# Entry
Amino acid sequence: GAVVSQHPSWVICKSGTSVKIECRSLDFQATTMFWYRQFPKQSLMLMATSNEGSKATYEQGVEKDKFLINHASLTLSTLTVTSAHPEDSSFYICSVKDLRNLGDTQYFGPGTRLTVL
Amino acid sequence: SQQGEEDPQALSIQEGENATMNCSYKTSINNLQWYRQNSGRGLVHLILIRSNEREKHSGRLRVTLDTSKKSSSLLITASRAADTASYFCATVPMNSGGYQKVTFGTGTKLQVIP
# Structure
């Protein structure tokens, strides 16, 4: 399967600052990337779907101006949490998919743990 | 919502025993997948079963799917301490188009005691 990395693996920041999380597909051309959020002891909730070179599609209830997603290439997508607040503290996970192969499997990154003080 | 529900929420067994987790979902699906997540880590894809399949095996894993009951089960045989993790079912709805968005269930936390 594809190898997906995320950077950083964990980050602690002050309230009000912005944090950028990178998701890289190391050996796979990811036409589509998904961003998920997972609160402690809960399941993953899809935040947005991004396609290379176009605007992301956000799920209901997810503020697009707060969670900025950029999918500039087939190997890199970034999620920026703007003006982070303690309630944004969560585990953020990306996954990648190659729609050209119409494969069903998504490949997940190792996740980024964000703690906002 | 489409989010699946899994039961039990938590399961504790002795090493060597079998572990069974169940997943129920609400709408018609294209396929159902099971994932494993070690604490604080990313997800590992275990197995995918399509809507026209009833049972699938992969090593010590056995997955069943009953589309009439909108339910699936994951059986791990001869469990090992290393199987300790959270297990999630995930569904891809029918007619979800090219994106094939995956919706995750609530998860079962499995503890295998050595």
